[in-house]
Specification:
Number of helices: 10
GO biological process, one term: fatty acid biosynthetic process
Strand order of the largest sheet: 3-2-1-4-5-6-7
Order of helices and strands: EHEHEHEHEHEHHHEHH
CATH superfamily of the largest domain: NAD(P)-binding Rossmann-like Domain
Family: Belongs to the short-chain dehydrogenases/reductases (SDR) family. FabI subfamily.
Oligomer: single chain
Shape: globular
Keywords: Fatty acid biosynthesis, Fatty acid metabolism, Lipid biosynthesis, Lipid metabolism, NAD, Oxidoreductase
CATH topology of the largest domain: Rossmann fold
Strand content: 5-15%
Pfam families: adh_short_C2
CATH architecture of the largest domain: 3-Layer(aba) Sandwich
Helix content: 40-55%
Pathway: Lipid metabolism; fatty acid biosynthesis
Largest sheet: 7 strands, parallel
Length: about 300
């Protein structure tokens, strides 16, 4: 990354995924610029930026066109051109991330999509003319874009739109030699992750059931970001790169990873409700009995 310059948008603190990526790039010689929204975040981001030698720390509000114009004018004045972009910006009303997706309000749906998805498009449109051939853009997504995740609701829909945008943008910008990819990290203890209800339960579930049985660390995602932003991935674009200890390949956890008693109780409850007599469903349906019996044997 020697001689490369990049803009990192969305660092909140030293636990942020964007910061993990920034550190990895800086360690390999990249020059960085950072943005922040609001003075409170500015006070957090500025010392982090200084720790990696960055003097470009700019205010940015993705809902304000003039603010974004000012960011890229400052970059053009300081650098002329640059090589990569990290987009780590998302928002939704915390109160609507629990309960039913059906109860999402129109206002929150629109704002969630605007900040979490459209902001990447809006930023990329400004960034692309300043990027040199071989440039790279990376955004952040999550498994809730692909499958239903608890307490993720409209954010999952916004992330699905973001992933689709990655593919369309990869085609649009490919002719200019610019690549566009996303990183889908597993649950992590970040400021954004903590906003999700029952975050600890989700974290522990993934830790238990992911094939590698390990927590996702900031350096894991930082390394993936470094790969996607560097020339090592020069033929990779339009991809969603999972950094989740393999959780994305799981359809159902292995029987040995399930709570045997919980599975048994759940099966008994369903069986009782279906036959209405409180007797095991196996009396009437041997096919239904086969799977739980096998699961219990395997769990032992």
């Amino acid at each position: 990354m020697q001689g490369k310059r990049g803009l990192v948008m969305g660092v909140a603190n030293d636990h942020s995924i964007a910061w993990g990526i920034a550190k990895a790039c800086a360690a390999q010689g990249a020059d960085l610029a950072f943005t922040y929204q609001g003075e409170a975040f500015g006070r957090r981001v500025t010392p982090l930026a200084e720790s990696v030698g960055s003097k470009l720390v700019l205010p940015a509000d993705v809902e304000d066109e003039a603010s974004l114009d000012a960011v890229f004018k400052s970059l053009e004045d300081a650098w002329g051109s640059f090589d990569f972009l990290v987009h780590a910006i998302a928002y939704s009303d915390k109160s609507e991330l629990k309960g039913r997706y059906l109860d999402t309000t129109r206002a929150n749906f629109a704002r969630t999509m605007d900040i979490s998805c459209f902001s990447f498009v809006d930023i990329a449109r400004r960034a692309a003319p300043l990027m040199r051939p071989g440039g790279s853009m990376v955004t952040l997504t999550y498994a809730g874009a692909e499958r239903v995740m608890p307490n993720y609701n409209v954010m999952g829909v916004a992330k699905a739109a973001l992933e689709a945008s990655v593919r369309y943008m990869a085609v649009d910008l490919g002719r200019d030699g610019i690549r566009v990819n996303a990183i889908s990290a597993g649950p992590m203890r970040t400021l954004a992750g903590s906003a999700i209800a029952d975050a600890k339960t989700v974290f522990n579930w993934n830790l238990t059931h992911a094939p590698l049985k390990q927590a996702i660390e900031l350096d894991d995602v930082g390394g993936a970001g470094l790969y996607l932003l560097s020339d090592l991935s020069r033929s990779v674009t339009g991809e969603v790169h999972h950094v989740d200890a393999g959780y994305n390949v799981i359809g159902m956890p292995q029987a040995r990873d399930l709570d045997k008693d919980l599975v048994g109780k759940g099966y008994a409850k369903v069986a009782k409700s279906r036959n209405g007599k409180g007797k095991p469903a196996a009396d009437n349906d041997t096919r239904a009995a086969a799977a739980p019996a096998s699961a219990s044997d395997a769990a032992e």
